[in-house]
Amino acid sequence: MKKTMINLIPGPVSVPEVVLAAAHHDFASPDLDTDFLELYCQTEARLQKILGTKNSIIIQTGEGMLGLWGALKSCLRPGDRVVAVCSGVFGYGIADMAEAIGAEVRRISLPYDQTFANAKELEQLVADFKPLMITAVHCETPSGTLNPLAEIARVKREHGVPLFCVDTVASAGGAPVEADRHLIDLSLNGSQKCLSAPPNMTFVSVSAAAWEVVDRVNYAGYDAFKPFKNAKAEFYFPNTMYWHGTAALSAAAGLILDEGLENVYQRHADAMHYCVERARGIGLELFATPEAVKAPTVTALKVPEKIEWARLHKACHENGLAIAGSYGSLAGKVMRIGHMGTQANIALLKTGMDILEKVLKK
Ligand SMILES: *Cc1c(COP(=O)(O)O)cnc(C)c1O
Fold first, then answer.
1. What is the CATH number of the domain that holds 101?
2. 224: exposed, middle or buried (C-beta count within 10 Å: 0-12, 13-18, 19+)?
3. Which protein residue has the closest C-alpha to ligand 1 atom 6?
4. Are residues 306 and 239 in the same domain?
5. For residue 102, is it left (φ>0), alpha (ψ between -120 and 50) or beta?
6. Is residue 1 part of a domain?
7. Mean pLDDT score, 313-322
8. Residue ranges of the alpha helices (H) in the chain?
9. Domain carrying residue 271
10. Is the CB of 64 under 6 A from ligand 1?
């Protein structure tokens, strides 16, 4: 990307210099040097604060998808029952992934422009089907929505569902996840969204209940969680850990905590409101319905009917603005502005929205 580019892609986002610099060392061996173990523990402690959990967090090399696959494969065996709350590309995607592992999956199926609201249907399904796991996506990045988690957590508790697995990749560090309050057993994350680190690390919180299931399932594979259970205590990781990537992730988490979580969430909310207001001012329409909860980290807009997305995208790029299209059935119909992490910045958004306005006028 050109230096002058305004990056408003919803991940990977712009990485601050100090985070890049944290990775820029000639580190020793993470297998032998206990400094690595200290860094790993420090990173875990920082991420626990951001996710709002006392559960242990495993940190692996790879981006978000690795954590998604690792969690599902480590906890599900063929025939296990899963109820998937689906309201977007990732929600339906996780349901398909669980099915690919052989799980029996029932979906709470919502259109992509809505968020979870009707606990009755979920409650009925969970009561009848008795799943091992409920899955949900907090921020559906492709549609710019944020699923409320409290009611799903209530259903989990009242019906004694062992595991609640939530994709918080695009919300953690931009909106309160509060994993413990929401009874999340597995909070799945990547480094390149709100954390604003390079796209090379995944981190997943694992509750005691989830560890029990991981033990029982005993999945072996590169993405397996089980070898991480005693990795810290025994200082024995299943593979050579990525010291540079861990250092960058720790620095990125440190920046968020230094700013203060409440301030960070307010900055994201302010960025979202500014983005929505500007979009409306230019005559653009939100993709999500008015009833849906809007994500504070990304805004999805309808591509105006008379405009071809590929042309608009190209024109924005030529004018120094990087924004994104969307995925699946939303491709070509939805465009997205990422205001997560470093990009939750009103001055940056103003410059970007000015360019978008200029391009659209032509
Ligand atoms: C980005 C993202 C992921 C992970 O995708 P990557 O391949 O790591 O980019 C998973 N879920 C959601 C909701 C995301 O936004």
1. 3.40.640.10
2. middle
3. 64
4. no
5. left
6. no
7. 97
8. 17-23, 34-51, 64-75, 89-100, 119-129, 150-158, 208-217, 231-234, 243-259, 261-281, 309-318, 346-361
9. 6-13+260-361
10. yes
Instruction: Find the Cα–Cα–Cα–Cα dihedral 213, 202, 326, 361, rounded to 10°.
Output: 150
Extract the tokens encoding 36: 């690595």
End position of a domain, from candidates 258, 287, 311? 258
The per-residue pLDDT of the chain, averaged, comes to: 97
Total domain count, the chain: 2
Q: Is 3's pLDDT higher than 80? A: no
Report whether residue 113 contacts ligand 1, using a CB cutoff of 6 Å.
no
Residue of 63, 66, 146, 147 to mutate, ligand 1, most atoms within 8 A of C-beta: 63
**11 C-alpha to ligand 1 centroid (Å):** 8
Give the CATH number for residue 264: 3.90.1150.10
pLDDT for residue 285 is more than 90: yes
Residue 296's pLDDT is: 98
Burial 250-274 (b: 16+ CB within 10 A, else e): bbbbbbbeeeeeeebbebbbbbbeb
Could you identify the atom of ligand 1 that is nearest to the CA of residue 142?
Answer: 15
pLDDT digits (tens, 9 = 90+) for 331-361: 999 999 999 999 999 999 999 999 999 999 9
Q: Which of 53, 17, 32, 70 is nearest to 227 (CA)?
A: 70
The number of residues making up the chain comes to 362
Regarding pTM above 0.70, the answer is yes
Top mutation candidate among 69, 139, 141, 327 for ligand 1, by most atoms within 8 Å of CB: 141
Beta bridge partners of 56: 206
pLDDT value for 327: 86
Do 228 and 85 belong to one domain? Answer: yes
The CB of 67 under 6 Å from ligand 1? The reply is no
pLDDT per position as a tens digit, 191-241: 999 999 999 999 999 999 999 999 999 999 999 999 999 999 999 999 999
Last residue of a domain, one of 202, 229, 258: 258
Predicted pLDDT at 1: 52
**Atom 3, ligand 1: which residue's CA is nearest?**
64
Once rounded to an integer, what is the mean pLDDT over residues 119-126? 98
